[in-house]
User: Fold this.
Amino acid sequence: MNWNRLERQIEAIVFAAGDPIEISRIAQALDVEESVVRHCINRIRERYFDDQSPFDLVMLDNAVQMCTLPEYGNVIRSALELRRTTPLSQAALEVLATIAYNQPVTRSFVEQVRGVDCSSIIRSLVKKGLIEEAGRLNIPGKPIAYRTTPIFLRSFGLSSLEQLPVLPEEPEEEKGEAKQLEGQMDFFEL
Assistant:
């Protein structure tokens, strides 16, 4: 197997894709096993590191994306005249955390957890691409359920949701409320 040629092909595919591309699609296009693609990705990443390249290949669940290293963010933003994104408010971070740890969830679930209206925050998070529609509940009104996106993972430096920090244990009275809310999520039509 010509590893150098295969690595260049993978690098070209990932670069051209722009957005995260599934490992399985790359493997299928090159007619190789997914494990071979993963091995090549690791070799490319090592080469980038050894060459002190400004690039990296970032794994996002079962997909890969070419990115620049964080230390080049300011100069890239300046060159492309991109305005700096405003940081998320505490309320938006709470809504995002509720969705990330309990997904897929409806707006009413998030509002029950937080105790306040969250519709404008959810619209904002959808607009920013941090959450997306995951389907609708199969109950009257068919409310939309939301989940996090690959942009969420990338924004928080995560490869998968399994990397979310473990939540502290909750008091016993709150566990009962959470079980009650959990039961509402059994009616998904995805």
Residues 1 and 154 are 32 Å apart (CA to CA).
